[in-house]
């Protein structure tokens, strides 16, 4: 072989290189597309179901929490808190058939309508409070106003609270509690402060959103809560409200939700005497809340809703009825001035 001679290799006979044909590629694409479509459809449905379950669980939890709050607070309606420790008076008090203002060690948690056990022994008497320094009835500091019919000359002498529940703890009448609104007061937090609580509706969106359930039209509302300390002064204004539960289905014209029931029902009303008037006491409150899911179910795109219901019997109002029927209606306090608040 000379230096300029090259070596050649020849192709092996019968050996050829070829790729996929256009028909095979098209068939593969079609098969992959069908498989991916099925997978994505399944994943989409699974995602919708997961999101729907999450929304349902959140709405359910929100409504349940609202129901628990309302049950606890309504159960305290009419509660008149006792003050601790007892008060004392360090000034001589002369008996007088007219009301007079008397200075105590403090008047914290003493309210108009309360009864005070004043002094001990033969000088002991019960005095009904008609006003305090806090309500503007007295000008001196820490004073209560009432009729003291016994001389109290030995100082200091004790002044002890003698409180009865407010039978009017749940407000009834024009512009107060009805099928969609509940107004009540009492020491709802058990902290010695009488609070005024209002549950009411307002549209969830603006403009309001409506949905159809079984051929009937319902608006989506927020169930709101407002809580304000009672000042016993006329012209008091309640605090702004905040939502307890959202997307509550209700028709305010018919006064019904999807279950055919109002949000607040009052099946047991009792009339009791409070000198010199009578009041209607609410024995039981039925709460029925129907909550929509955002407002339609994400998975089915249809209106879906669930209902929670409970009955509440305010123990303090039942106690007031018992006191009245036993002849103790003289000691029951009337509705505080300033309620209902604007």
Count of all domains: 2
Name the helicity range.
Answer: 10-25%
Provide a count of the helices. Answer: 2
Mean pLDDT: 87
Q: What distance lies between the first and last C-alpha atoms, to the nearest angstrom?
A: 118 Å
Question: How would you spell out the order of helices and strands?
Answer: HEEEEEEEEEEEEEEEH
Low-confidence stretches: none
In terms of DSSP E residues, the strand content is: 25-35%
Label the overall shape. Answer: elongated
Q: Would you count the extended β strands for me?
A: 15
Structural class: alpha+beta
**Rounded radius of gyration (Å):** 36 Å
Biggest sheet details: 5 strands, antiparallel
Q: Can you tell me about this structure?
A:
- The chain has about 350 residues and is of the alpha+beta class.
- It folds into 2 domains: about 50-80 and about 165-330, no CATH class; about 85-160, Thrombin, subunit H.
- About 20% of the residues lie in helices and about 30% in strands.
- The protein has helices at about 20-75, 315-325; strands spanning about 85-90, 100-105, 115-120, 125-130, 130, 145, 155-160, 180-185, 195-205, 210-215, 215-230, 240-250, 265-275, 275-295, 305-310.
- Strands 8, 9, 10, 11 and 12 form a 5-stranded antiparallel beta sheet that branches. It has a 4-stranded antiparallel beta sheet with strand order 1-7-3-4, with no helix packed on it. Strands 2-6-5 form a 3-stranded antiparallel beta sheet, with no helix packed on it.
- A hairpin with a 6-residue loop joins β14 and β15.
